[in-house]
Amino acid sequence: MPSWTHTQGAKVLLNAQRLPLAPPGNFLSVTRNWGPDDKLILQLPISLRTEAIKDERPEYASIQAILYGPYLLAGHTSGDWDIKTGSGKTLSEWITPIPAAYSTNLVSLSQESRDSTFVLTNSNQSITMEELPAYGTDSAIHATFRLILNDSSSEVLPAMTDAIGKSVMLEPFSFPGMVIVQLGTDKNLAVADSLSDDGSSVFQLVPGLDGRPETVSLESETNKDCFVYSGVNYKSGTSMKLSCKPDSSDEDFNRAASFVLSKGIREYHPISFVASGVKRNFLLAPLHSFQDESYTVYFNVQA
């Protein structure tokens, strides 16, 4: 029996008959003359747990790894590793699973400029346009967002186009709990904690101002006729801002405020969790699912 499981809820069946369990970390022995129709079924509970780093120095007493059954979970991060458990007595109070249906809400927003494709990107908590990245890179993660309906009656979109005409927020893929926010007209967009949001994170997803069927535009909910805007003939690293529509016939503005809405460049692993952090939350997934991406497998776990 694997050491990562436990006997409560475990079940071993041989031809529908229950067998005695062995303690985790010990062999389960079944001796018989086996036939071609014999069927042995093991049902093993799987749960979250932490393991302390193997270092007895007191300054490392709070450093722990997070595991889910046999899977070592890694967090998408390039430096921060501080986790806050608060008053939680169990792991499930500060580590929560990501519903599988959330994957349908992952999107990327792109534009063409200077004969290149650029995507909306979270660049160190500011929003820029960057060249279309390769899959499995940090850049691909930063160019993926979860589309959140502001209407709390529904969290899942059957199709991306179902969000058109609705109030939405955009959550950066690797920063669960944070959203893109508006800092005012003609000011750059930023990323902030959704708990401190004053409504500046809400946009109306409308058909693209450029009139193309495959595009959408993001209109501010609090500043009507003001849209997420990139500019014309821009380069990689261009900051995104909220800009108000000067004239309905301004083709350059309409093009700069229109984006192709497509499936997210990155997707959630089927085994994904959110862990509460001190400064930000962490997206966790099995280490083996990471490619050329920044991560940590150890966290500084604080109460």
Write a structural description.
The mean pLDDT is 90. This protein has 3 domains: 1-45, no CATH class; 50-98 and 274-302, no CATH class; 102-263, Trefoil (Acidic Fibroblast Growth Factor, subunit A) (Trefoil), CATH 2.80.10.50. The chain is built from 2 helices and 25 strands. A hairpin with an 8-residue loop joins strand 14 and strand 15 (190-193). The longest helix is centred in the C-terminal third of the chain and has 6 residues, at 251-256. Helices cover 4% and strands 38% of the residues.
Short recap of the structure:
This protein has 303 residues and is mainly beta.
Q: How many angstroms separate the termini? A: 33 Å
Here the CATH topology of the largest domain equals: Trefoil (Acidic Fibroblast Growth Factor, subunit A)
What does the main sheet amount to? 9 strands, mixed
CATH hierarchy, class of the largest domain: Mainly Beta
In the CATH hierarchy, what is the architecture of the largest domain at level 2? Trefoil
- Tell me the radius of gyration: 24 Å
Mean pLDDT: 90
**Beta content:** 35-45%
* Outline type: elongated
**Total of domains:** 3
